[in-house]
Write a structure and sequence with these properties.
The chain has five helices and eight strands; from the N terminus they run ββαααβββαβαββ. The protein has 196 residues and is α+β, with helices and mostly antiparallel strands. It is globular. The protein starts with a strand and ends with a strand. The protein binds coenzyme A. The site of coenzyme A has 21 residues, from helix 1, strand 5, helix 4 and helix 5.
């Protein structure tokens, strides 16, 4: 029987007018800017980046490829979808991380679904993706950025804090969690990038 579990999450914010480091990828990686033809790649890297993570329990759509596809369609269909803050980090033949951006009604930039596939973490890709999204929000005219992060996600919380994000609000999200692992979560795997 599913058990109602509450996940503590922080809303963190950052003033985009403050200086920040440049968004630089490690050697051998390159940027793929948003392009509607890349929706499937975003969905795949999103699914791989969140495979087995707590956030895939908190948001069940992150746990499956169809769910990630639906999520991507929902994001790009929003009036506030922000292409300049939506990026894939790639290396030859593979997508290894992604982020999407959405502007809210106040014109704040919301960082969505920042994720890096497990075997490429710790290389500076997450930080670079975050900074690239922040640059995109600033270019789109936003003065402030925000995100939500699960409180137990220590690597992510630490990364956001080190780049200047501060917690402004705590949110508890109730989720019906099955006693057994919810669904088959695909193992993280490299993704072939079509170059057309
Ligand atoms: C959070 C995440 C995106 C970080 O990506 P990453 O590519 O590993 O991060 P980076 O290599 O750019 O490291 C960024 C910072 O976090 C630190 N860090 C990375 N992994 C860490 C870990 N496991 N433990 C502690 N610190 C860690 C790094 O030291 C670095 O700090 P620095 O810039 O001060 O040196 C990645 O862990 C991830 O995809 N997690 C699963 C999805 C997720 O939870 N996303 C966040 C949703 S809010």
């Amino acid at each position: 029987m599913p058990k109602l579990t509450y996940f503590k999450r922080h809303r963190m914010e950052l003033d985009l007018r403050h200086p920040r480091p440049p968004a630089e990828l490690p050697p051998g990686f390159f940027w793929l800017p948003w392009n509607p033809n890349l929706l499937e790649h975003h969905a795949r890297v999103l699914c791989a980046g969140f495979a087995g993570e707590t956030d895939a329990l908190v948001f069940s759509s992150l746990a499956t490829l169809p769910g990630c596809r639906d999520l991507m369609h929902a994001i790009v269909g929003l009036a506030g979808f922000c292409p300049p803050a939506t990026w894939i980090a790639a290396r030859a033949g593979c997508c290894v991380g992604s982020v999407q951006g959405v502007l809210d009604a106040s014109g704040f930039g919301g960082v969505q679904n920042l994720g890096v596939v497990a075997d490429h973490r710790g290389l500076g890709l997450g930080r670079a993706l975050l900074l690239k999204a922040l640059d995109g929000f600033a270019a789109a005219g936003a003065r402030r950025a925000f995100l939500e992060v699960t409180a137990t996600n220590a690597p992510a919380v630490r990364m956001y804090r080190r780049l200047g994000f501060r917690a402004y609000k705590t949110i508890y999200r109730g989720v019906e969690v099955p006693p057994e692992p919810a669904a088959e979560v695909p193992a993280p795997r490299p993704l072939v990038v079509l170059t057309s």
